Amino acid sequence: ELLLAQSSDWAFIMKADTMVDYAVLRTKRHLHNFNKLAEGVKRLDINQKELSRLEKSNNIFPEIDFKLYRKRENKKLRKEV
Prior knowledge:
single chain; 81 residues; mainly alpha; 4 helices
């Protein structure tokens, strides 16, 4: 949903002043969906029905690995003396 909200199409449509209301609606809808999903992850309470619905309606990245977006460990580089 975040990638869909960040799509350059919506910003382009708004800047070009064509179908602005639709582009704003879609951007807000994707951001709303992302925020709901992110809150569910934080609470460890994912609404499976909602997640399935979103996956069916916007499944444009079926091969994307969500683990690429997780927080990395902070590893300090060590100098060998």
